[in-house]
Amino acid sequence: MTVIPHPPRADRPADRLVTPAHGLGVRLADARLTYGGLPLFDGLALDLPAGRVTALLGPSGVGKSTLLRLLAGLEDGTHAQATITTDDGHPLAGRVAHLAQRDSLLPWATVLDNATLGARLRGTRTPATRTAARALLERVGLGDRLADRPDALSGGMRQRVALVRALMENRPLILMDEPFSALDALTRLRLQDLTARLLAGRTVLLVTHDPLEALRLGHRVHVLHGRPATLDAPLEPPGPPPRDPADPALLALQADLLRRLTGEAHGVPCPEAVAP
What we know:
CATH topology: Rossmann fold
Number of domains: 1
Distance between the termini: 19 Å
Largest sheet: 7 strands, mixed
CATH superfamily: P-loop containing nucleotide triphosphate hydrolases
Structural class: alpha/beta
Strand order of the largest sheet: 1-6-7-8-4-9-10
């Protein structure tokens, strides 16, 4: 997880550490990415509705992770640029948490210390912070593993710690870059369910290669395709997430997504991508 730092706030009551941050509407416009002198996308626009999960699918190398890095403020402008605005008119910087495929837990730190890493780095960790972290770790089934180190945890447990660490930052926008792709199928389904509950009401951008995961968790699902890449009109699965993976309506939408990903829906094969 990457946390974009911001100054500590003295007006933040302790109970807000476990209260979901209000979702923030975000718009990314005029996004451009070049690789080897060729445009991978140009003039791209993406809206993230407040309090909703937007899922993004596309072939490897099409630029999905770059969009996340643009929103996180991690691109230096050399190869990728974009205009980013929010619905409250304030800058996005300092209001983003990033949950990646790799949990990036500190191997020498306990579960509790990893969960409160952001506050520790800012020098704002207090007894209330640790109490809030314990409560969240209990909710994700790790209340009895607080003193364990990462090498004593399964992959699913480690990712739950990373999720709690992101939630402890209490940021209104959470960026998720294939956070469950390294997990077995059953663990992935369980973590999808848990994530949907814990992130309810936050604004989330989920990048995934799994169409069913996108449909289970996303309020809107986009496919990024082509060269230069463009965004399809979003699919909006019925009902609130997490959705039943055996629902026939969801499986029909999954077939539609697969057609989009392979290029069949656009009348052309999906080109082999080249971006990192």
